[in-house]
């Protein structure tokens, strides 16, 4: 969990600053995604796909809820 100070710092950032931070984090972490045996890499990417799918379902559910209220 991020501290309140960190969250506030992120809120004050411009979109360009947040994008730059995101791209920097991606660049720093991609080598670790590809490290290990092919089975480990595949499991890692399967976990990412599953987490992304779950997040998408939650977002679509929330969007659907807001549309029903209107």
Can you walk through the features of this model?
The chain is built from three helices and no strands. The protein is mainly alpha-helical and 70 residues long. The radius of gyration is 17 Å and the shape is flat. The mean pLDDT is 94.
Portion of residues in beta strands equals under 5%
**What's the overall average pLDDT, rounded?**
94
Distance between the termini: 33 Å
Radius of gyration: 17 Å
Topology as a string of helices (H) and strands (E): HHH
**What's the tally of helices?**
3
Shape: flat
List segments where confidence is low: pLDDT < 50 over at least 5 consecutive residues.
Answer: none
Question: What structural class do you assign from the helix and strand content?
Answer: mainly alpha
Please count the beta strands (DSSP E, at least 2 residues each).
0
Give the tally of structural domains: 2
Helix content: over 70%
Main β sheet profile? none
Quick tags:
70 residues; mainly alpha; 2 domains; 3 helices
Summarize it:
With 70 residues, the protein is mainly alpha-helical. Helix content is 86%, strand content 0%. The radius of gyration is 17 Å and the shape is flat.
């Amino acid at each position: 969990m991020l501290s309140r100070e960190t969250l506030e710092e992120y809120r004050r950032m411009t979109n360009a600053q947040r994008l730059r931070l995101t791209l920097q984090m991606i660049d720093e972490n991609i080598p670790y995604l590809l490290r290990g045996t092919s089975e480990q890499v595949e499991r890692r990417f399967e976990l990412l796909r599953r987490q992304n799918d779950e997040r998408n379902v939650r977002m679509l559910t929330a969007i659907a809820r807001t549309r029903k209220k209107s």
